[in-house]
Amino acid sequence: MEKASGFxxxxxxxxxxxxxxxxxxxxxxxxxxQHPTINEVYERIKKDYPSLSLNTVYKxxxxxxxxxMASQFTTKExxxxxxxxxxxxxxxxxxxxxxINDIFDSSLDKLKVSPPLKGGFEIIRHDVIFYGYCSECxxxxx
Amino acid sequence: MEKASGFxxxxxxxxxxxxxxxxxxxxxxxxxxQHPTINEVYERIKKDYPSLSLNTVYKxxxxxxxxxMASQFTTKExxxxxxxxxxxxxxxxxxxxxxINDIFDSSLDKLKVSPPLKGGFEIIRHDVIFYGYCSECxxxxx
DNA sequence: TTATCATATAGTAAAAATTACTATTTGATA
DNA sequence: TATCAAATAGTAATTTTTACTATATGATAA
Lengths: 142, 142
Prior knowledge:
Oligomer: homodimer
CATH architecture of the largest domain in chain A: Orthogonal Bundle
Number of strands of chain A: 5
Order of helices and strands of chain A: HHHHEEEEHEH
């Protein structure tokens, strides 16, 4: 669970208001190993803030992304998921239960493409996604 | 450009009808380095087959995916793109013009996660996406 | 603590993307 | 060439995302 203090500082820096909605959305994303969809964010917060608007969730997540505080990625099925920006990491997705874990592996962070293969591209960053079966689904024989 | 004959054979095997729509969609995907969105597929074919239904494009692409002949992936912006299944490869995406190139690099195909980091997962496959600027956009100073 | 003001929110509506449904058409087979 | 199941187009329904606006609220400074 990431501290909210960093988030608060960032909002102050940028002159953004610290609303309960933003704090709640940040809290969901910052909880360890969360990769919720828009709707999951909305539904979870709605329990405590029934007046929350889905609109606000959309706009807040977009804001977070613009600020570089969060990012979205999409699974093979085309489901868009969100996560907070933390240290560089990659993902591993269970093909059965759809659970997504983070992988922190510095060797993956260092991947390079040899010049003849990258066709003149200047590479800024990269993501790796592994697909497989988690320990529970593996036992159930899929 | 991939041969259509493989596709035709695959359809016969599975008892699928060889319709002009399917052939056209396959042709678009099979053209070298194409990663079109649903709408791009639809618009391009509509020029020659004005009666084509968007519905058919959706269903055909889903079919191709179920058959393991195509796959979808999504860019950071959440745009879903489709491609034909060819030899294992990865992607490099220009952050400015959104062009997507394929990378064939066997060392990337061999990526592994060390057991302590994969948390019990059994890994089946993986994808790597690089982000950067292509040679043209690089020259334009982004 | 309170007044002020720009920003954020909720609520509604509009637009875009995706899926469902069905009558008709069409490819494959004999 | 006839038959039949499967595929298609067209339409409608549903879902997802975005736009718009009046109201509410966080931040600031008096």
